[in-house]
Specification:
By secondary structure, this protein is mainly beta. It is about 0% helix and about 35% strand. The protein folds into three domains: about 60 residues, Hormone Receptor, Insulin-like Growth Factor Receptor 1, Chain A, domain 2 (Hormone Receptor, Insulin-like Growth Factor Receptor 1, Chain A domain 2, Ribbon), CATH 2.10.220.10; about 50 residues, no CATH class; about 35 residues, no CATH class. The chain contains no helices and 14 strands.
Length: about 150
Amino acid sequence: MYRTLTSNTCPCNSGYIDVGVPLCARCQDYITGCNTCVSTSICTQCFNGFYILAGTCQCTTGFLVTGVCTTIYGCISATNLAGTVYCLSCNASIYYTLQSSNHTCVCMSGYYVDIYGNCIGKCGDKILAYGEECDDGNTVSDDGCSSTCKV
């Protein structure tokens, strides 16, 4: 039951929390990356690779996606197999698409990743991207498209 008899009571062992049933639950089942907790929403010690921020565990590197720390920008669903993170789906609303050959997210056609990991449209690439009213492949105004790819 993950409990230890102490002074006529049976509190949960370290790393477990009482959720109102005889069997104590693991902290990490309620708070990703949590090793020790005081409730199902407040962690007091995180596993390696995480740090505590306001009672939750945050990834030391990368960002948390479905319980896995990943550095795959645009990833919204991931899995961890034998220590390797694989993205399962990407955020199309910010112009990412899944590259199934290596389970990473890449910018959709007509978009390019900037230094912050954002997919942005590029004027003059002949691909009409969101926010561009036209894109004829050059940056010369007065030919039907302006030099900023807007009519």
